Structures are given as structure tokens and as C-alpha cells.
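sry for the spam today, last one i promise. C-alpha cells for design, 360 residues
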């Protein structure tokens, strides 16, 4: 089968959509042909995608907002149709006339884009988080947890659409299915705010760690290739006695398994933390992370420190001190979170579910 993904990412808007699509794409490899259609991506990420044997096709940016915000407005119908025609022209130029499965993960695209792409797509899968627009698709995936997670798309998808909703359908890399028997260090924390961390929360948390030098604590700090302040961060991490910086590491699940507490953002990392059994202390990076994080916090599955522009250094400092002094509470948070993804049994679970639906 030929599977095509339409997804974007940048250091400005973050790389989370690209990474979860890449995870799903690797489930389809190597028995299927996979193509990514994206606007300009960081060179290291381009190399990673193509290194996996995935064809990468460049599209024009949808509009200027694409590089300036986490959640840009949905395009009007005319521009969505125009962009679909643009995508079809690109596909035709490389000999792709028919797509078996089109996967769309893009906040600015909705039903009008899908309707036009039906001209060349047998099946359409949409990955979404927002439930703020109509979709024309055969399968919709939203891995987030909300109070109304099982009904929020009732009026946004056609009757024939199969909805895969909630953390059970989290798209996780295979490394998160490898159980660890290593004992966790209750005084060890992990810090990661995604691949690019455009708000530079990583450095803020490291500054707090520096101020807590009297505390017996060790830390792993993770950033991606797209992180812009690497030299400054490296110098600060080196000033800490028991801290190590990891850049674009391929073993973050191992680091999660080593820690009792992880400080980071919302989004897909909620489910990675849940799968590995590390408790989350969350600073939300964008509005679309707030409701799921609030819901998890209220269900005692994480500790929410607040939005990025509200959580203070004092809040972060107190949270770290609490985590170190209250390991049993952190273990309980992790256990509660783990129960949410317990139905996701193997790395191909989401792909298998999609294929079972479209081949009925």
C-alpha cells in the first residue's frame, strides 16, 4: 500500500505533529511505501525521515501563520481546496496518482481539504487534538483525555467515520513497549520540553536546579536538534554536579525509566510518561495542551504547574522539592497515568486498528 502523510512542523510551531506521524509511519514500514508531504523542515529531521526510507516531498507553506504560532486559524474553504490541488500536483509530478491511505495531521486543514483529496485517496485518516472543525475521513484519532473525550466529535465527522479516542490509542514508538526492571532513583529527575522547546523552558528549569544546589538531586536534560540555545544550556548543565545533557537522543524511554519524576510539556509526552511509569510535572506550552493536562491533574495522573507564562521559578522550585521529598506520591501519580494506556498492548496497535477498519 501507499501511505501519504500531510503534516508540518518547525522550530517555531514545534515538531510534535511530525514526530507522532513519524511514529505511525514506522509502523507501516517496511511492507508499505510511505511519503511525507511537509513544508520546509529542519535539515536534521529531513535526514531522519529520509534515512528511514520515507519519501519526503516539500509543499509551499500554507500561510505566514504556519511558522508563528502553535495553533493557527483554520484555512477558509477556498484556500483549503487550492492547497489540496497543490498537493495533488506535487504527488502527480512524482508519479503518485492513487493513495491507499492519506493521513492528515494539521490544525489548519479540515473537511474541504479532505474532500478535494478524495480524488486520489481511497481512505483518509485524520489525527486531531482540538475537535474544533469538521472532518471528512474514514478514521479519526484523538489520543487526548477530556471529560467528554468519547463524544466531542459526534457532530464533526460523518456517520461512517470510525473514531479512535482517548489514551488507549496513543501513538507510541516501539521503545515505550519495552519494560524495565531497573529500580528508579527517587532523587533523579528528567527534564524535556520536546524537540525544539521554542519557549526555552528547559533553560528556566535548569536555572532553578542551579538555585537548588543544596538539594541532593541528579538530572538528565534532553533537547532536540532544533533547540536554539544549546551553548548557553550546555554551560549551565556543566555547572551542575550530577546532571547530563542529551541532544537529539534516541533513548529517551531509557531516561524515563531511570527517573521517578519528569518535568516537561503536555501533548504526546503525557502518554510516553504513562507508558514508562514516570510521574509528570507539567508546564503547558500551548492552549491545546491545557484541557488534557487539567483533566489528568484532576484525576491524580500528573501535577500541573500551570501555563508557560504563569508558572514561576518559585513554583518550579517548590515542585522539585516536593517530588524529592514525596516519592510515594510521585509513584502513585505514575501508576494512575499508566492505567490510562494499559489497553495499548503493542507498537503496531494503532496501525492494526486502522487496517482492521479500512479492510472490513
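last one done:
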Amino acid at each position: 500500500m501507499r501511505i501519504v502523510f500531510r503534516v508540518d512542523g518547525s522550530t517555531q510551531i514545534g515538531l510534535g505533529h511530525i514526530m507522532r506521524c513519524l511514529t505511525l509511519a514506522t509502523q507501516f514500514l517496511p511492507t508499505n511505501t510511505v511519503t511525507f508531504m511537509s513544508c520546509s523542515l529542519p535539515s536534521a529531521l529531513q535526514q531522519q525521515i529520509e534515512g528511514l526510507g520515507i519519501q519526503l516531498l516539500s509543499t509551499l507553506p500554507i500561510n505566514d501563520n504556519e511558522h508563528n504560532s502553535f495553533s493557527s486559524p483554520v484555512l477558509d474553504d477556498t484556500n483549503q481546496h487550492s492547497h489540496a490541488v497543490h498537493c495533488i500536483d506535487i504527488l502527480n509530478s512524482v508519479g503518485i496518482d492513487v493513495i491507499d491511505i492519506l493521513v492528515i495531521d494539521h490544525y489548519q486543514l479540515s473537511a474541504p481539504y479532505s474532500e478535494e483529496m478524495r480524488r486520489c485517496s481511497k481512505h483518509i485518516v485524520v489525527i486531531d487534538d482540538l475537535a474544533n472543525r469538521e472532518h471528512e475521513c474514514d478514521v479519526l484519532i484523538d489520543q487526548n483525555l477530556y471529560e467528554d473525550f468519547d463524544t466531542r466529535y459526534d457532530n464533526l465527522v460523518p456517520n461512517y467515520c470510525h473514531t479512535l479516542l482517548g489514551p488507549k490509542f496513543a501513538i507510541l514508538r516501539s521503545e515505550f513497549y519495552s519494560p524495565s526492571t531497573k529500580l528508579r532513583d527517587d532523587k533523579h529527575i528528567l527534564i524535556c520540553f520536546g524537540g525544539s522547546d521554542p519557549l526555552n523552558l528547559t533553560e528556566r528549569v535548569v536555572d532553578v536546579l542551579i538555585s537548588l544546589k543544596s538539594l541532593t538531586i541528579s538530572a538528565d536534560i534532553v533537547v532536540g536538534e532544533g533547540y536554539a540555545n544549546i551553548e548557553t544550556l550546555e554551560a549551565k548543565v556543566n555547572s551542575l554536579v550530577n546532571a547530563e545533557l542529551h541532544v537529539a537522543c534516541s533513548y529517551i524511554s531509557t531516561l524515563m525509566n531511570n527517573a521517578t519524576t519528569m518535568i516537561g510539556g503536555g501533548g504526546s509526552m503525557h502518554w510516553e510518561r504513562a507508558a514508562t511509569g514516570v510521574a509528570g510535572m507539567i508546564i503547558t506550552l500551548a492552549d491545546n495542551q491545557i484541557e488534557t493536562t487539567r483533566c489528568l491533574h484532576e484525576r491524580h495522573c500528573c501535577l500541573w504547574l500551570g501555563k508557560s507564562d504563569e508558572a514561576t521559578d518559585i513554583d518550579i522550585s517548590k515542585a522539585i522539592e516536593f517530588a524529592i521529598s514525596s516519592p510515594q506520591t510521585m509513584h502513585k501519580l505514575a501508576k494512575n497515568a499508566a492505567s490510562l494506556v494499559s489497553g495499548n498492548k503493542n507498537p503496531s496497535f494503532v496501525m492494526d486498528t486502522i487496517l482492521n477498519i479500512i479492510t472490513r
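The radius of gyration is 20 Å. ok im logging off now
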